[in-house]
Amino acid sequence: MSSAGTDRLARLLALVPYLQARPGALISEVAADHGVSERQLRDDLQLLFVCGLPGYGPGDLIDMSLDDDTVTLTYHAELDRPLRLTADEALALIVALRALAETPGVDGAAVGSALAKVESAAGEAGRSARQVAVTGGYEDTGVAGRVRGALERGRALKIVYYTAGRDATSERVIDPMRLLVVDGRAYVEAWCRRAEAVRMFRIDRIDALEELPEPSVPARGIASDGSAFRLADGTVFEPPPDSPLITLRVGLGSRWITEYYPCDDVRPEPGSTWLVTLRASDLEWARRLAMGLGEDAEVVGPPELAELVRSEARAALAAY
């Protein structure tokens, strides 16, 4: 059987228990959940109509109610139990869950609960997986653990941080919000009291760290109407209407700015880039934002901001 045929058979067997548990499921949602187009899904459902038990009479075949938008399974022909994992599949899933549990920013309790259930159900495969050494995709020097502890206790942190772009070290007080891994590197996302903005700090560039006795009060995020940004002290920043309007083309790794700054417009483009328009307090702040995003962002406008960033880049190149 071809790879496409094998994938389709697995999908057909999975569709029956899926639909059994979701009467009146939307065709669009079923297609999205199974990673196929709506047209492919309808072809699969038509094939299921002629599948069933030996005898293949009206009472033996899978039956369903199918209209323009929804589908309801009315007879499952005893194929309503979910597929079981093979030993190799169970082993791969367990190892992946163990690696996920060690990733910063992940809910360890939820992953641990899922891992325990899979290991128990997997039997011998689960016992074998315990012998497999799992290492994370980033170097944890112990700083990530201390940051995680501060997050759990709700404490602010004083850090000494190296900024590679300026080849400078600075001392900052931050209110940590979450730990995450991007491209194999661990970061702490936090409200920086010095910059009065949300910043991402690479764990391996934190030279020193001290947990403060005072509580962490991170940024509250964008207001529910998207028009304002709530600062660490509880006040709300509303960009004046005459503030410079800037437009950036950002990649996947920089989309976070749309969650932390009020945006006038966010427009997805073909591929993985977004065209983001927002107001800045001034062009110098916008320059720092654009430079901080690095190669993952491109200044579209205004021309004055583009020239500021080009001048900064030329100066950096001339220094080498």
Summarize this, please?
The chain has 320 residues and is of the alpha+beta class. The protein contains 10 helices and 15 strands. Strands 7-6-5-4-8 form a 5-stranded antiparallel beta sheet. A 4-stranded antiparallel beta sheet has the order 13-14-12-15, covered by helices on one side. It has a 3-stranded antiparallel beta sheet with strand order 1-3-2.
Please tell me about this protein's structure.
- This protein has 320 residues and is an alpha+beta fold.
- It has helices at residues 3-20, 27-33, 38-48, 87-101, 108-122, 124-129, 143-153, 257-260, 283-293, 303-318; strands at 25-26, 63-66, 70-75, 155-163, 168-182, 185-192, 197-202, 206-215, 221-222, 229-230, 236-237, 245-250, 263-268, 274-279, 297-301.
- Strands 7-6-5-4-8 form a 5-stranded antiparallel sheet.
- The chain is extended, with a radius of gyration of 26 Å.
- The model is unreliable at 133-139 and 220-236 (pLDDT under 50).
State the strand order across the main sheet: 7-6-5-4-8
Main sheet properties = 5 strands, antiparallel
Task: Identify the overall geometry.
Answer: extended
Approximately how much beta-strand content do the residues carry? Answer: 25-35%
Order of helices and strands: HEHHEEHHHHEEEEEEEEEHEEHEH
The DSSP helix count reads 10
Radius of gyration: 26 Å
Unreliable stretches (pLDDT < 50, length at least 5) are 133-139, 220-236
Distance between the termini: 58 Å
Number of strands: 15
Helix/strand-derived category reads alpha+beta
Helix content: 25-40%
Mean pLDDT: 75
